[in-house]
Specification:
single chain; mainly alpha; Hypothetical protein af1432; Alpha-Beta Plaits; 7% strand; extended
Length: 507
């Protein structure tokens, strides 16, 4: 056992020594490997450091080169500026030399001029003395003669200048007046409605027509006698027509008849009773219209009779233009024109508002509406400017106030504005007849119709005598003839219609 134990110990020591030997060998190898890796790391780091150093050196070299380029540019600019300064300096020296030369020449010339002036003065004195001796005039007489001659010579030139300035002033005033009128029109415009001389009244049934006429026509005769209008009862279903040129009377009659139809009791005594009530209502309505017109025209402090007359103008038309609305428009236009001229706007508006008041009473007083209006305004205490504007807005008298001229201009604007006034029926029908007659005068025309209120003419031609090319030429010829022969607003469309029809019967 001891022997075995010793052998085991010996073997253990042997194997330990073998393991220790291999461990030493492995440690040396690891150390060598570590040293190799450390050397590689050192070389890599050294290489990176060199690369960083090289990149920094290149960046520094770039900065240095850029700085050198900038310095070179600055040097070149400084050199150029220095050369320019030298050139300017040389130019200044040349200019100074030229200036000195010119000054010396100028001084010499001034001396020469002074000498010539003295010589001229001496010669003029000698000439004047000689002229005095020859003419026998003293100095004052010669001076007066010379001044008169100069005055005559300049008189013609001054007259020409005055005429020239007057022409320029006229052009300027025309331009300014057009601008003022255009601005007034632009700043104000109102809509006008056309009035007629008849009014239609709806009735519930045609049986009411017999009740309106009455037994043997007594109701309609009593109505016409009380109201002063004409009642037209024809075959038109559901309608009765009231006709009168006095719009107040016609409106009163219309309201009276409407009340009678609603009441159902229609006989002479009832007609008179209802008509009297309606007249009172109409008077109140007229006063209300006058007050509204005064407020709309911004005119205050009028006599109550004037207010009533202005209300009556609601039922008065002039060439289909409502006179009350026309007066309001003229008031505003006159105020706008006066504002452009720095005049009294309220007074101008008052003059324009009352300029046509005579139309509300011209059937009651003798004379035209300007004279009647001036008389009424003077009677009810209006100032001279307002009275004169009513009397002279149609150039019947010489205008003494600027407001009369403004009212006349505003009245012309309101009346002449497209759509404000309408041509009479006779002129309208005559124009259409002339248009159709002109087209019928061309060969091959069968029928002619003027439509669209005369803005279009349709012409039917005979297809056997007029072909398509001739129809095209005919439309141009008719249009040209209309342009040369007729006067019309806007434009007229010419339409040629050619139609061929072939008819046959199968038997």
């Amino acid at each position: 056992m001891i022997t075995g134990l010793l052998v085991g110990i010996a073997l253990g020591l042997f194997f330990d020594r073998i393991r220790m030997g291999s461990a030493y060998k492995n440690g040396d190898a690891i150390i060598a490997q570590a040293r190799l890796e450390a050397e590689n790391v050192r070389k890599v780091e050294a290489l990176k450091g060199k690369e960083d150093l090289i990149s920094k050196r290149e960046a520094m070299e770039k900065e240095v080169n850029a700085y050198r380029d900038e310095v070179r540019d600055q040097e070149r600019r400084l050199d150029k500026r220095e050369s320019m300064l030298e050139d300017q300096h040389s130019d200044l020296r040349k200019k100074e030399q030229m200036l000195e030369t010119n000054q010396s020449k100028l001084a010499e010339r001034l001396k020469s001029v002074d000498a010539k002036d003295r010589e001229l003065d001496r010669m003029l004195r000698e000439e004047q003395d000689l002229l005095h001796k020859i003419s026998g005039l003293d100095k004052e007489a010669a001076k007066d003669m010379l001044l008169k001659r100069i005055d005559r010579t300049l008189g013609d030139e001054i007259g020409g200048l005055i005429l020239k300035h007057e022409a320029e002033l006229k052009d300027q005033t025309e331009t300014i007046s057009r601008e003022m009128i255009g601005m007034a029109i632009q700043r104000f415009a109102s809509v006008h409605t056309s009035e007629t001389t008849v009014s239609t009244i709806d009735i519930p049934s045609d049986d009411m027509k017999g009740r309106i006429i009455g037994r043997e026509g007594r109701n309609i005769r009593a109505f016409e006698k009380a109201t002063g209008v004409d009642v037209i009862v024809d075959d038109t279903p559901g309608v009765v027509i009231v006709s009168a040129f006095d719009n107040v009377r016609r409106e009163t009659a219309k309201l009276t008849l409407q009340k009678l139809i609603q009441d159902g009791r229609i006989h002479p005594s009832r007609i008179e009773e209802v008509h009297a009530e309606t007249e009172k209502e109409m008077e109140e309505h007229i006063r209300k219209l006058g007050v509204e017109a005064c407020e709309e025209a911004e005119t205050r402090g009028l006599h109550k009779k004037i207010v009533e007359l202005m209300g009556r103008l609601q039922f008065r038309v002039s060439y289909s233009q409502n006179v009350r609305q026309h007066s309001i428009e003229v008031a505003h236009l006159t105020g706008l024109l006066a504002e452009q001229l720095n005049l009294d706007v309220n007074l101008a508006r008052r003059c324009g508002f009352l300029h046509d008041i005579g139309k509300a009473a011209d059937h009651e007083m003798e004379g035209g509406h300007p004279a009647v209006g001036a008389e009424l305004l003077k009677r009810y205490g209006e100032c001279d400017e307002v009275v004169h504007a009513a009397a002279g807005h149609h150039d019947d008298i010489r205008p003494d106030y600027i407001y009369t001229v403004l009212v006349a201009a505003a009245d012309a604007i309101s009346a002449g504005r497209p759509g404000a006034r309408r041509a009479t029926l006779e002129k309208y029908v005559r124009r259409l007849e002339e248009l159709e007659a002109l087209a019928n005068g061309f060969p091959g025309v069968e029928q002619t119709y003027a439509v669209q209120a005369g803005r279009e003419i349709r012409i039917i031609v005979d297809p056997r005598n007029v072909n398509d090319r001739e129809a095209a030429k005919m439309s141009k010829d008719i249009a040209k003839a209309i342009e040369e022969s007729l006067t019309y607003p806007g434009e007229i469309k010419v339409v040629i219609m050619r139609e061929s029809r072939n008819v046959e019967y199968a038997r």
